Structures are given as C-alpha cells and as structure tokens.
Amino acid sequence: QWFPQFIGGHLTGTSFGIPGRNATYDYVIIGGRTAGSVVAARLVEGTNATVAVVEAGTFYELSNGNLSQVPYYSQQYSGLDWQSHIESGMFTGNRPLHYAQGKNLGGSSGRNPMLYNRGTKGPYDLWAEEVGDNSYRWDNFFLFFEKSINFTPPDMTLRAANASANYSTQAQQEKSGPLHVHYPNYAQPISSYGPEAYAGAGFSPVQDFISGDLNGYNYFAFAIDLDGNTRSSAETAFFSPAMSSGRLTVYQSSTVRKILFDRNKRAIGVEIDLPGLQPYDLNATKEVILSAGALRSPQLLMLSEIGLNATMSQLGIPTVSALDFVGQNMHDSCAIGGISFQMTTPSQTSILSTEEDRIKADEQFRVSGTGPLTNIGADFASVNVILVATTSRGHVTINSTNVFDQPVIKTNWLSTIADQEVAVDAYRRVLSTVENIEARVGDYTAPNSTILSDNTLLLQYIQDEGVGPIHHASITCRMGREGDATAVVDPKGRVSGVQRLRVIDSSSFGFTPPGHTQAATYGHTEKLVTDVIRDGGYADRWNETVGMG
Ligand SMILES: Cc1cc2nc3c(=O)[nH]c(=O)nc-3n(C[C@H](O)[C@H](O)[C@H](O)COP(=O)(O)OP(=O)(O)OC[C@H]3O[C@@H](n4cnc5c(N)ncnc54)[C@H](O)[C@@H]3O)c2cc1C
C-alpha cells in the first residue's frame, strides 16, 4: 500500500538537501527524471560516492496523486509539466501546440502513458556505426535493456478470453531489473477486433514489441507495477529505493540556472535558483551530469556558455566551448491524427461515462486490481497514426538568459517530402484496417471520404488538423565519434571542449530508433552510467555488486 508521506521507506524530508546552503558532493545530477533517476540509483549502487540530484519538480505521488499513479488517468496532470509550446508554422497549420515535458522526480516516465517498446534491431546497429561504439549494436545493447526491467506475462485469468497478448520467451527471462513491465489486467473491448482488422490489411502478428521487431500487431506492454497496478517509473523503480543508501541527496523543486566551470574548463558544480532564496551552489568533486531532457539539456548548455557563438553572443553570453550543434538535429516522432468512426463496442471514455460506472471501476481497481482503470485506454486497435521514423529535423534554441523562460522549440514535422508521402500512405493503410473492423458503424466521421480520396487534400488535412506531438524529442545534444565537429558529446556522453561534464538523457542519443523513446532512454542511460562508474575508478566494486564485465 502506498503511503504518500513515505518515499522509498523514508519520511519525506529525509535525504533532502538544505535549500540555500552551499554543499559538496562527488556527483551532481541535473534532472531527476527518467535518465537522472537511473544515473543516481546506479551510482549509489556501484560506487561509494556521494550523489546529489537537483530536480525542478517534485514527487508526482505528492503533487498529482492517483492521477499519475492509476493507469487510466495517466495522462492527466497538474503542475507536473513545463508548459512548453512549439513554434507554429506552415507544416502544423499555424496552430500553437503544447509540447509536454514532465517536471517531477521520475520525469517524463512519471508523466507519460507508460508504453514500453524498444525499437527495431537495425537502427541500433546504425547508432553504433554513427558513433563508432559497438556497445550500441542491438546484440550488445540488449544487456542494457535487460538490466532495467522486470517483465511479467499477461494474467489471462484476469483478462478477457479474446484479449490474449503474445510475448516472447526472451521477454520472460527479463526479471532482474527494477522497472516493472506488464500487460494490464483489462483490454479495451475494441482491441479484440484488432487481429482481424490488421490481418485483413496485410499485417502479421509480432511476438512482442521488445524483441527488436515492430512490424506487425500485438498488444502493447506498459510500465505498470503489478503490486497495486500503478505506474512503475524511474522514480519508483530506481530513485526512491536508492534513497535508503544515505548517499543520495535530493534537491526538489530546485532549478539549475547554470553549470559552473573553473579556469581549466572543468565542470565544478551548479548554481541553483529556488524562488525566495538567494541562488546557491552545489559543488561536484568528480562530475556534473546533465539529464534535463531533450528540450532543456541544450537550453542549460547554452546558458552555461556552451553552444553556437552567434546565438550566445546576441544574448551577451560568453563561450566556454563553441559547439555549433547544441540544440540542432532534433529527431522527433509525430502523431498525425487518425480516422474517426462510430462503433458498437464501449470506448475508453464511454465505459466510465456515469458516476455509477466510475464508482464501480474504482472499487474493482482497489479490491481486485482489475477493470478499466488498470488500462491507459489504448491497446492496439485505437486508430491513431504516428510517424516513428521521421526524416524531418527540428531544433531547440534560446532567446533569453533566464532559465525560467521557455526554450524556443521548432519541430519542422512533415517538412520533408518523404515524411509527407509516408503520412498520406499511412492514412491509406489505416483505412484498410478500419474497413475490417466489424464493430464500426457507418462511414467515417473525419476526415470525410472526399478528403480521404485526394492526396493533396489529405496532406493539407493532416497538417491543419492532424499533426501534433507525441513528445519523443531526442538528439539535441547529439552523440558522435570522438573528434566529430557536428557532435556535442562523445560515445561516453562527455561534452566536447570541457571536462567533467556529461549529458546522459534522450538528448544525447546518437540515433533514434523507431518507436517510443523511454526504453531507449533507460538502455542508453544504463550504458553511459557504466562509463561514469568505470571512469570514476569504481570498476571493481561495480563488477562485484552489479555483475557487469
Ligand atoms: C506526455 C508524454 C508522453 C510520452 N509517452 C511515452 C510512452 O508512452 N512511451 C515511451 O516510451 N515514451 C514516452 N514518452 C517519451 C519518454 O517519456 C521520454 O523520451 C523520456 O522520458 C525522456 O527521458 P529524459 O531523462 O531524457 O528526460 P525527462 O524524463 O524529461 O527528464 C528531464 C528532467 O530534468 C528536469 N529539469 C529540466 N531542466 C532542469 C533544470 N534547469 N533544473 C533542474 N531540473 C531540470 C525536468 O523537470 C525533468 O524532470 C512520452 C513523453 C511525454 C512527455
């Protein structure tokens, strides 16, 4: 049972840094979300170092309670988000669009709808080639995926008989990590029509979405903890358990304004802003690790004098390291809408439309861990279209020296002919699945058949009304081979031109595999933190405690 006043077995308040007071740690981590939580936990486990995490948000269990924890409500939030917007443009019908990024311990893993999948094999091999490090090859990288997760097969005694999910024997063996990956105890009624609909459109079943093949249909797995059927996040799985070590200190609701360097360009700490207090410093005797995510890691590098000379000189920021590609090269998936139609089965929303339904579902969730609240509302027959391997590239930059001002985000979705053609073709392909859904009633409500039959009109419709974020930004501090002038970090995540500073998060990928990005972020972080530990001289202890050769 969850007691909100306890985090990781401690009263809240234990293991917390004292705001306003300078302090010194071996490692200072900026951002306690997905990557930052994993770095903190692995450093505590694999070293005897002291570690501080500075996070602008707080524990989502405290600030957002059940809404963050119960799968069905997982996309509702208050105060957990940075409220960023992307620059509107012709490819998004000039609409202002919110771009979510979690602001809490556990990060976007505490704010996302928890889908867990891993991308396909080839792109990992490409990542390895791009950066000249074979650790990123699928066969080698698998070790890092496995380290994070604890897989549980679907419980078919609780799911409906016509909602069985495939999973591989490989998945079954993945039991040693802290992040729970599981199939909900309830499937959306429409999903039972999925196999027939997708097979009719020429797709085949895949054994799961974590073994390196995404080309086919199946149910998604989610980061859900079977014990309570609540969200399993980087905070619950990694961060909070690590707090019991006594060597992990968290500064919550605290925003890093700047990374500090000595005259030899060595990162020596961070400057923190907490409203109502004078700024104060945390010193790092070994390294500063930047894990502020794909939108805010480049922002913080630029505010810390690392980036494109032209941008920074306009704002009067001097340069410690002139790196032209900070914030450039942003890879991002985008949702492009879908096809709406009426159906005879209950939908995600209609199933809980009355007060009585909600009370019943709540009781079912609490008493037996079953029912609609265990499911986020999307299985595999929701007819959303997402471009997962895009060729359009965006960027992130700054127009202010204040960390509390939003970074400028330009996604440029659908700006290449290739992405435009795939978008139109994807709608056609989806159309052929929808044709086969027996539960569909009548014609489509949107887009109408005139638009659907004309490529130009359809593309315009997608740009004006369909395209939007699914929040998978990455590579804004791109990893490249040592000496690559277009890269920001090397294959160990070390920032070029300075010392003792690494970027470990989704911004420092070398290539973004198709699919959702949290599994790649967990794997990438597990890989880079082994580099931190080895470079810190802790290899022996690491091998002994974690068994990594
Ligand atoms: C709404 C949403 C839905 C998503 N859905 C899915 C999904 O279902 N499946 C999936 O696989 N992926 C999903 N993703 C993507 C996935 O969650 C991210 O790719 C992943 O969490 C990125 O991790 P990260 O560590 O790079 O960044 P984040 O998790 O964003 O962590 C960055 C942390 O740094 C903190 N921070 C930033 N600046 C500062 C500062 N100056 N000082 C202190 N702290 C700072 C932030 O508050 C944040 O906690 C989703 C993302 C979002 C936002």
TrEMBL record:
Keywords, in A-Z order: FAD, Flavoprotein, Glycoprotein, Signal
Pfam family, one: GMC_oxred_C
One MF term in the entry's GO annotations: oxidoreductase activity, acting on CH-OH group of donors
Glucose-methanol-choline oxidoreductase N-terminal domain mapped to chain residues: 25-332
Keyword Phosphoprotein recorded: no
Protein residues bound to FAD: V256
Active-site residues per Swiss-Prot or TrEMBL entry: H472, H516
Protein name: Alcohol oxidase
The species this protein was found in: Bimuria novae-zelandiae CBS 107.79
